[in-house]
Amino acid sequence: KWLKEKTGETPDLFGNQMKHLIQMQKLREAVMAEIAPEVAEEEIHRAFLNEKSSLDVELVKFESEEDAKDFYNKVKAKPQAWEDEKAKRPKDFRRPGGVTCQFLIDFWAIPSDDQLKMVKMKSGEFYGPAPMYKGSGVFKVMGSTAADETKYAELKDRYKEKVEVGKKFEGLKDWLKKLKEEANMKKYPAKEKADAPLEKTGEGGKDE
To answer: Do 191 and 57 touch, CB atoms closer than 8 A?
Structure first.
C-alpha cells in the first residue's frame, strides 16, 4: 500500500525496475573495469595546474571571434574603453570571482591554455580573444594565484587517478554511444524486411 501511494507502482513492477537498475550498474562497473586508459605525464601535470591555479577575471562574451578581437584591440589601445563599454551593457560583463581554472573550464568552457597564460599576467591586463561557452571572450585580469609546483610530487598520484577516472568515464560514454548506434543499425534491416512484402502486394498495407 505504501509503495502504491508513494510511487504509483505495483510491487512487481517496482521489483523489476530495481533489478534492471542493478543489472545496469553491474554492466557499467564491468565496462569501466575493462577500460585501461594511458595517462601521460603532461596530462597529470595539467590536471594539477588546473585545480591548484586560481584566476579572478572580468569577462565579456561576443558572438563572433572577430567582434571579440576588435574589442580587445580597442581596450589594449585605450583601457578606459572597457569601463565605457561596461556602462553601456553591464549585463554582458561578468566576474565569476577568484575560482580555480578547472571551475572556469567546467562552467565557462574557457580553455586551460588560455587560462594558464592569464595566471601569469598582471592585474589590470587584458587577454583575448579566447573561446568560451557559446562565444568568444575578452578578459580583464583582476588577480591570480599560480599553482605551487613544490606540491606536485606529493599530489601526483592523486591527480593521475583523477585523470584515469575521467578517461574511464569518457570511455564508458563512447561505449554506450557505440552500443546505441549498433542497436539502431539492427533495426533498419528488420524494418526494410517487414516493409518489403507490402511493396510487392500493393494491397494498401495488408500482408497476407
So the answer is: no
Say if residue 208's pLDDT is above 90. no
Burial class of residue 155, CB neighbours in 10 A (0-12, 13-18, 19+): middle
Residues 32 and 168 sit within 8 Å (Cβ to Cβ): yes
pLDDT of the residue at 32: 58
Q: Which three cell numbers stand for residue 18?
A: 530495481
pTM of the model: 0.69
State how far the Cα of 95 lies from the Cα of 199, in Å rounded to an integer. Answer: 63
The residues pairing with 136 across neighbouring beta strands, listed in sequence order, are 62, 131
Distance between CA atoms of 70 and 63, rounded to whole angstroms? 12
8: left (phi over 0), alpha (psi -120 to 50) or beta: left
